[in-house]
Structure prediction request, 203 residues.
Amino acid sequence: MKNFAPLLFSLFCILSANASALDYFNVNADKVNVRKGPGQNWKVVAQVDAGQLVLETQRAGQWSEIFFVKNSNRKFQGWIFNAFLTPQQLDGSEKKQPYQLDVSALKPVCTDRTVVGIGSLCYLDVSFVVTFEDESTRQTKINCWADFVVPGDKEVVPIQTSDTQLYHVLGGKAEGVMRLNAGMQRRVDSEGLNLAYYNCAVE
Prediction:
């Protein structure tokens, strides 16, 4: 991958007069959607893969507006779910995270709820363990998300869900299980709900 840091640094200098905070990040997953606005309902304008260098120009909750260059200096700007971003220094080295995060999950579970007319209730239980370098006692926010794929009558239907919860850190460690719900409008069994991707991040 070409090093576009000099071009992004030039943009940084231009924008710094009009923005309070600009930071470099690396994308930490493949095929991440970049959208026209800060939310899942906005149109997808591009996709980025792991290792892509981006410049964050503003942040709105869990979404970041980014600028990046790819495909022979073609410039893009849009919004990305900021759990997919890892801070990076200008010299190209990633900032070391003061923790280690391990995430695991079993297959999705669907419960038939057609009796009450709301389709199936489907969910994924995501387990995580985060270990910090220091052993202080405090609270930390954990954000987990998942992408599901449901075969439809005419096309595949994507479903995205996420949740953020506050956990106690005791002795430098926090662990738990977060249930991510994907409510369905029709009857679906566990075999019909395919898990495409899941992960967690420390906020």
